[in-house]
Amino acid sequence: MVHAPRHAAIARNLIVLRVDVYKQLGDFAVEVTFVSEGRVTGLFGSSGAGKTSLVNMIAGLLKPDRGFIAVGNEVLDDTLAGIHVPPHRRRIGYVFQDARLFPHLSVMQNLHYGRRMNGVVYDRADQDRVVALLDIGNLLARRTGQLSGGERQRVALGRALLMQPRLLLLDEPLGSLDSARKAEILPYLIRLRDEAGVPMVYVSHDPGELRQLATQVVVLQHGRVATFGDAGVLARVASAG
Fold it and tell me: Does the CA dihedral 130-202-38-23 come out positive or negative?
């Protein structure tokens, strides 16, 4: 059994994420407000709905024109108070669709890159937990060019987890995979939700993924929240569409 890291336990009914932001992006505006207590907050919407822009604001890569973002009890953005915590100080792990591993490094070296860049002290027990959770022990000596798409995403997840993040952002992590590779990695994402103890924001335009993973769902349309609730809102959105 894989035990949840002690630094990442989530208390029942704890507010994980509070977002109340506005950002003008050319002719398009993102204006989103929600409070999530979910282990996995799903961001659902079609291409151009504002999902990635919102995630980039949570990550600190994009600064809201006005508004407020907090993870747990820590305020990351508050435009009225002049607060904008830079990305490298947010302790937020970000996993992209294309994994973004370093091809000249081994899997083990990739795993430790994020930890070192964020000044996290090496913890062998934490490393062993993450490696076991994602079943990547047999990959550690390989170069990333030798990995399948699903293996690359598992390594990217491991690198983010070893940063000891307070929150994981996953932006369409299965978007570049075929159906077989998606079926391979989905069980690991479910294990991550149930065993790692790190809250996640999971971006997808695939309602099937979110029905399996998300505990709460924010449905975005044209940069605004169309509806918010448990995964059951996806069925209502589908029937309305």
Answer: positive
